[in-house]
TrEMBL record:
SUPFAM superfamilies noted in UniProt: GspK insert domain-like
Pfam families, per database record: T2SSK_1st
Region listing for Disordered, in residue ranges: 1-54, 350-377, 389-414
This protein's name: Type II secretion system protein GspK
The organism of origin for this protein: Coraliomargarita algicola
Length: 414
């Protein structure tokens, strides 16, 4: 090797040593680590503001999730609490039927206590009942009964004879009531009375403004006239004209029906007891018999009720004695009551017959069949016309006597 070639090699080495080293770019070696640590020119570096925005967005999302969880928890808690309340009520209601020996027997015992109280107080006044102020309004207090712990008993005694007997009212009385108390004109009142009388009479002869089975059989669906006394006031829904005046388009009772219900009854057939009659009944009777109802209770001595029918009153329509009672016993053990309601007719007698056996005792060992003769032999002081469970009578209007004498409804005795 000559000198010139050595010099050229030295120059070449020095040039290569002095030349900068070229490294491969990110595009040439696309490794994930380098790409993440050294973003490309197309991916701008994150700024502090963008990082703060991402953190706030993440926190808002977490807050929304928390609110949703709390709302669901609250809804589930409400549903569970309602379910528990309804389950408790259902269990209490079912417990009534599962323990008839406790609940039902005690309720009927309270009914007997009420009947015995009414009977005993009635005997004090020679077997006559006039008004609750005689002392029979609160049988539990009168008899000194102790109610078991955790139970609650309520006894209501209503005089059902303070209303007018719609099944036995005369046509003249019925027309007068429809005109004076309900403001029907002469023609409409006659149509209503004729329709009702045709419905309850025993024959199929149509009155001038009435209707019989032939008319009702043309309806859809067809039915026949009852030709018997009304069993309930709702039965008026089946009678022409009455269905339009006392019921709405859906067949539900209207305000006129409520007024009628406070004045008449389908349960008794005797005279209305003036001591328990509402104001509307007293006004009608006073207008019919020609006396002033405002002074009906004037001149009473020591007792706040009438014991004799005023001379100006018609004894056929007006009376002063109780002829029909509704006794309702409610027994609570929780929120659901067990109810027994009895419709009874007093049949008192102050005369006692000598007998060598106890009431109801019979020397015969023959089984009892419930015949009328066996019932008469018991000499029970009430005729039980109806007994029902879980139902009670309609609410009654306060007697007009209370306002006339300034007596509170809560008064039991005088």
């Amino acid at each position: 090797m000559n000198v010139n070639s050595k010099q050229r090699q030295g120059k070449t080495w020095r040039a290569s040593a002095l030349a900068p080293v070229q490294r491969p770019s990110a595009r040439q070696i696309p490794t994930p680590a380098l790409a993440s640590q050294h973003p490309t020119p197309h991916s701008p570096l994150p700024t502090p503001h963008s990082r703060r925005s991402r953190v706030l967005a993440s926190q808002r999302q977490q807050g929304s999730v928390l609110i949703a969880v709390l709302a669901i928890t609250l809804l589930l808690s409400f549903i569970i609490s309602r379910f528990i309340d309804e389950a408790i009520d259902d269990l209490e209601y079912r417990a009534i039927f599962n323990e008839p020996s406790d609940v039902r027997s005690f309720t009927y015992s309270m009914l007997e206590v009420a009947l015995a109280t009414v009977y005993e107080v009635g005997l004090i006044d020679e077997g006559k009942l006039f008004a609750p102020e005689q002392g029979w309004a609160d049988p539990i207090h009168y008899a000194g009964i102790t109610v078991p712990n955790g139970w609650s008993v309520d006894i209501q005694i209503q005089d059902e004879s303070g209303k007018l007997p719609i099944n036995t009212m005369s046509e003249d009385m019925l027309n007068n009531m429809l005109e004076e108390s309900f403001d029907f004109d002469f023609g409409t009142a006659r149509e209503l009375s004729s329709m009702l009388l045709d419905w309850i009479d025993e024959n199929d002869s149509r009155r001038l403004n009435g209707a019989e089975s032939d008319d009702y059989l043309r309806r859809d669906p067809p039915y026949r006239a009852a030709n018997a006394p009304l069993q309930s006031l709702e039965e008026l829904r089946l009678i022409e004209i009455w269905e339009d005046e006392f019921f709405d388009e859906d067949g539900q009772p209207n305000e006129l029906f409520a007024q009628l219900d406070s004045m008449v009854s389908v349960l008794h057939t005797g005279a209305a007891n003036l001591n328990s009659s509402p104001q509307s009944v007293l006004e009608l009777l006073a207008q019919q018999d020609g006396y002033d109802e405002d002074h009906l209770f004037d001149g009473l001595d020591d007792l706040p009720y009438l014991q004799q029918t005023p001379g100006s009153a018609n004894s056929e329509n007006s009376g002063v004695e109780v002829s029909l009672l509704r006794i309702t016993v409610n027994l609570w053990r929780g929120q659901v009551p067990f109810t027994v309601s009895a419709l009874v007719e007093p049949n008192f007698s102050t005369e006692t017959e000598a007998s060598g056996s106890a009431p109801g005792d019979d020397s015969s060992d023959a089984p009892k069949t419930g015949a009328t003769s066996e019932q008469d032999a018991i000499a029970y002081p009430f005729t039980i016309l109806q007994v029902s469970e879980y139902t009670q009578g309609r609410p009654s209007s306060p007697p007009a006597r209370y306002s006339a004498l300034d007596i509170g409804e809560e008064s039991d005795s005088f």
